[in-house]
Design goal:
The chain has about 130 residues and is α/β, with parallel strands linked by helices. The protein has one domain: Cytidine Deaminase, domain 2 (3-Layer(aba) Sandwich). It has 3 helices and 7 strands. The protein has a 7-stranded mixed β-barrel.
Length: about 130
């Protein structure tokens, strides 16, 4: 499956990872269909943010409630791997729900996108498009 991601979102994800370093950044991805048009940072509330992430639960409640009310649609989530490649870690795999949402992982100044599939993460190809 191929998705589209705006140039601004790619830049925002890389900037968020640099700013959060040495901790993991995290947030929510919005868009329509297979196009990611916006990324919203969220607070990483995990007690060990240098190696793990947990999106602030209240932020998740708020964005899903807004989406149900007609607001921007949540396509997935993002987080960074400050010291490793942008591939799902063992922890990521254990935390995955198989909900078919998109995960963006930022690592080593590279962004990769993954589908959280019930059979495990699947790499997604993507095209960068104008906003």
């Amino acid at each position: 499956m191929q998705i589209e991601v705006t140039r601004d979102v790619i830049a925002q994800l890389k900037a968020a990872a640099r700013q959060a370093h040495p901790h993991e950044c995290c947030g929510i991805l919005y868009g329509e269909g297979r196009q990611i048009t916006h990324a919203q940072p969220a607070r990483n509330v995990h007690p060990t943010p240098d190696t793990h992430f947990e999106i602030d639960p209240q932020a998740l409640i708020d964005v899903h409630r807004a989406a149900r009310a007609g607001g921007p649609q949540v396509l997935g989530y993002y987080h960074s791997h400050p010291e490793s490649a942008p591939h799902p870690s063992r922890t990521d795999q254990e935390m995955a729900t198989g909900d078919r949402r998109i995960w963006a992982i930022i690592g080593m100044n590279e962004v990769m996108f993954w589908l959280d599939d019930p059979a495990g993460f699947q790499a997604l190809s993507y095209e960068i498009v104008a906003a």
